[in-house]
Every structure is written in C-alpha cells, then in structure tokens.
Write a structure and sequence with these properties.
heterodimer; A: 114 residues; mainly beta; 6-stranded mixed β-sheet; 0% helix; B: 114 residues; 7-stranded mixed β-sheet; 4-stranded antiparallel β-sheet; 11 strands; globular
C-alpha cells in the first residue's frame, strides 16, 4: 500500500465549476500537508500548505485536513481554464533525519473547459 | 529572483549508456533535492543535500545512480549504466533550509532510455 493515495482522474469540468481534489494517507506521523500545481512540461509549484488539521483559504482555493480520517482535500471555486494542470498532494513529518522529505501523491489531472 | 535552473531539458540515450544532469539552485538555498517523476506518478525523492552533505539518499539506487553537490551550490546527478526503467523526468528542487515548507522546482530533465 502506498503511503499517499490520490485519484489520478482525469477530471474534466466546465468553467466556473467547484472542483474537489482529494488524497488519503496511511502515515500518522505526517504533520505538514501541501498542494502543488504542475503545468505540462514544468516543475511543480507550491499552492498552499497547512499544518495539522483544519482549513486554510487563499482566494479561490481552500485546503482541508482531517487527520482523524487521514484525508486531505483541495477545493477550487469558480474554476478557470488557467487552472488546468496536474495537482499533487504532498506531505511530510515534523522531525527525524529526513526532515523536509516530501511524499507525493500520484497527481490528479484537471481540465477546465470554457 | 532567478529560479532553479536545470540542463539539459531533454536527453535520449541507449540502455547501458551513462548520462549526467546538472542543477543550479536558487541563490542562498541550503537544501537541494533530486526527484524522479515517472509518467503518471508523483515525484519520488532520490537524494537530499544540506549544503554539500547528503541528508537522505535512502531511495537512490546506488549501484547505478550517484550525485554530488560541490561547494554547496550546483549539483550533478549521474546514471551509469542506464536502464529502460530510468526513463522519467528528473526534477531538481531547492529550499532555504530543511525546515522550509516550500520547495522550488526546476523545469526538469526528461530522460528517455531506448
């Protein structure tokens, strides 16, 4: 079983739709949870990160973490064609010799069509 | 601020040949990472440097892969000899330090092994 599982999609939605992207994980030591966006032929870029459980909002993006269920989500409101990309969840623990090591999900391909 | 630079962007080699990738991180970033991203998967950490020392190389296939970061700045990743399953995008990333939640990724080197 992989430490981080993410539905690969692909996900296709009309412009203006609300998008929900999700990941589950098995390692209870994970404390920091990130969402990266990766455009085609580019490296990933950080969208948001949260620490432990709770919600965090940044513009049209909302990240949710439920540590009791080992489940994280990213919501995109009023989706735009420019949001079309691969979305990667990533997470890490808070200590140890591998501090900073990220474990990624496999990514969800999102297409927002006009 | 200049981003993470990588070269070459694309490389095609025959199996059993050798290949080397170069990375120049963001100036002042102490931590440098090499990831392998196979098509349809999330990035997998191969090796992490803190300045010019190795922090984590637990997932590096040491019989064929090697990496160095001379003078704590630029880094090279080498594969010798290459196998078909090494076909992937090799991403370099850097961060201010191991405690930083944001890693900055380069565009990657796409390797095809025939």
């Amino acid at each position: 079983q992989k430490e981080v599982e993410q539905d690969p999609g692909p996900l296709s939605v009309p412009e203006g739709a609300i998008v929900s992207l999700n990941c589950t994980y098995s390692n209870s030591a994970f404390q920091y949870f990130m969402w990266y966006r990766q455009y085609s032929r580019k490296g990933p870029e950080l969208l948001m990160y949260t620490y432990s459980s709770g919600n965090k909002e940044d513009g049209r993006f909302t990240a949710q973490v439920d540590k009791s269920s080992k489940y994280i989500s990213l919501f995109i409101r009023d989706s735009q064609p420019s949001d079309s990309a691969t979305y990667l969840c990533a997470m890490r623990d808070a200590g140890g010799t591998s501090y900073g090591k990220l474990t990624f999900g496999q990514g969800t391909i999102l297409t927002v069509h006009p | 601020e200049a981003g993470v630079a990588q070269s070459p962007r694309y490389k095609i080699i025959e199996k059993r040949q050798s290949v080397a990738f170069w990375c120049n991180p963001i100036s002042g970033h102490a931590t440098l990472y090499w990831y392998q991203q196979i098509l349809g998967q999330g990035p997998k950490l191969l090796i992490q440097f803190q300045n010019n020392g190795v922090v984590d190389d637990s997932q590096l296939p040491k019989d064929r892969f090697s990496a160095e970061r001379l003078k704590g700045v630029d880094s090279t990743l080498k594969i010798q000899p290459a196998k078909l399953e090494d076909s992937a995008v090799y991403l370099c990333a850097s961060s201010l330090n191991r405690m930083d939640n944001e890693q900055f990724f380069g565009p990657g080197t796409r390797l095809t092994v025939l």
